[in-house]
Amino acid sequence: MNFNSKLIIVLLVTIPTIFAYVNGECNGRSGICINTNTCSSYGGQSFSGNCPSDPNSIKCCDNIPCSADDGRGGSCIFSGQCNGETFRGKCPGGNDFICCVGKGGSSSGKEESTSKNNPHKEGRPSWYINQGEHRETICKIGGENKSVATSGCGVASLSMAISVLTNKKVTPETLFREAYQKNMYNGNGFSHAALTFLARKHGVKINWTDNVSNVFSALQNGKGVIFNVGPDSKYHFTRNGHYIFLYWAKKENGVEKVYVFDPNGRNNYINKLFPLKKSQGGIEVAKRGFGNDFGIVSKA
């Protein structure tokens, strides 16, 4: 009888120690300890080493997007970390792991996305535009056929921005023609002024800036960014001048990172995560150098 009592006590003590963190908070992150397949199905990211008492199939799932019934974007966090509106039944785990819309928080101070079109899942999203696939001749300048493929990275980036921000599809060819008809295209790409004009016409606006902190904040809040880049020795976006599209951002280990959607599909920089700030070895080093090379795109 004494042996059995001791055995029961041992089991009661050791079993929770092994599995106590399943559906519980991660160690050192703001996420939840769940099965990696479940994490992937919810669009989250799995991190090793933050659920030390669980089986190998249980890892910390963080950066999980969610949305309210009205489409507003949020993040899945524990209810005690949310300072905004809470919605249940939209996140994995237990009843205390909720969709937080508005002011979210985390014990580790991690940044969260609030974009309902969160593109952080791997792969090529449906709205991505590879300018090389758009070879229709729009005009001839100096005897040369001009198309989105030859010099339409700016309108391709703007077309992506319009799509994710308004859910309306405006082809890069349409934008190209509109600029050409307004004498805003001379054969060498598109100016900031031309893109700003086209944006206003299609329900969005562009605020050009060099402040990367504002860029990161804008991306965290569901806005897009058109980045005018030049030649650089690290990322090789272009040999001359080029526009790329940034959409969604997050902070990892104190480093601000952004997702790049480069219309030059040959680079294979499609939904790729890069550091942002020059001081952290980020893509800011590729600035074109014209001034105000980041165009924050938001709804008009």
How would you summarize this macromolecular structure in one to three sentences?
This protein has 300 residues and is an alpha+beta fold. The chain is built from seven helices and 15 strands.
Descriptive terms for the model:
15 strands; single chain; 300 residues; Cathepsin B, Chain A; alpha+beta; 7 helices; elongated; four-stranded antiparallel beta sheet; six-stranded antiparallel beta sheet; 2 domains
Could you characterize what this model shows?
By secondary structure, the protein is α+β, with helices and mostly antiparallel strands. Helices cover 24% and strands 26% of the residues. The protein folds into 2 domains: 2-101, no CATH class; 131-299, Cysteine proteinases (Cathepsin B, Chain A, Alpha-Beta Complex). It contains 7 helices and 15 strands. The strands form 4 sheets. It has a 6-stranded antiparallel beta sheet with strand order 10-15-11-12-13-14. A 4-stranded antiparallel beta sheet has the order 4-5-7-6, with no helix packed on it. Strands 1-3-2 form a 3-stranded antiparallel beta sheet. A hairpin with a 2-residue loop joins strand 8 and strand 9. Helix 4 (153-166) crosses helix 5 (172-181). The longest helix has 18 residues, at 2-19. The protein is elongated. The N and C termini lie far apart (76 Å).
